[in-house]
Write a structure and sequence with these properties.
Layout (H helix, E strand, L loop, with lengths): L6 E4 L6 H12 L2 E4 H9 L3 H25 L6 E4 L8 H7 L4 E6 L2 H8 L13 H19 L2 E4 L5 H11 L1
Parallel strand pairs: 1-3, 1-4, 2-3, 4-5
Helix pairs in contact: 1-7, 2-3, 3-4, 5-6
Bound molecules: shikimate-3-phosphate (S3P).
Protein name: Shikimate kinase
Pathway: Metabolic intermediate biosynthesis; chorismate biosynthesis; chorismate from D-erythrose 4-phosphate and phosphoenolpyruvate: step 5/7
Subunit structure: Monomer.
Amino acid sequence: MKKAPNIILVGPMGAGKTTIGRLLSQAMGKEFYDLDKVIEDNAGADIPWIFEREGEDGFRKRETQALSSLVQSDKENCVLATGGGIVMRDENRSILNDGSVVVYLYASVSQQLYRTSKSSHRPLLQTGDPKATLRKLFEVRDPLYREVATLVVETDARHPKSVANKVLDAI
Ligand code: S3P
């Protein structure tokens, strides 16, 4: 029997991937995974620790490993929230494009900044000007999110429940 597709959420930091992912998994009766959490569980350490000890490169290797074992294993029917940098590696984009429904949760740079300003667990925003960093990342990543997306949903002016409903209506 053909596997049911996984629903994978991509988008920048602050797009609401984890919140929307949880809502979708409840509404659809699918299991929910947060890739950052899976990486942390596998490493037995949190993301800031991984960045500090292994650099961004070490984190990206762990990210690809976790993505590939979740998506290419027997897991089906799950909702997966990814980290904002998931589209940076060709290998990851190939995995994303391989039969999953990929939803790009779009958020403007000012919304990303607003929504990430209260947390301090994102290593990429700990040095320099966070707005400039988010803008730079957005310029590189927005076309890549669009390249892998089956569906793009705008989140700026929407409550998480309304974003989740929009996704449910479209898939
Ligand atoms: C990252 C985003 C983070 C996390 C890591 C790197 C990025 O996830 O994976 O800090 O490169 O944009 P969220 O998008 O869930 O914040």
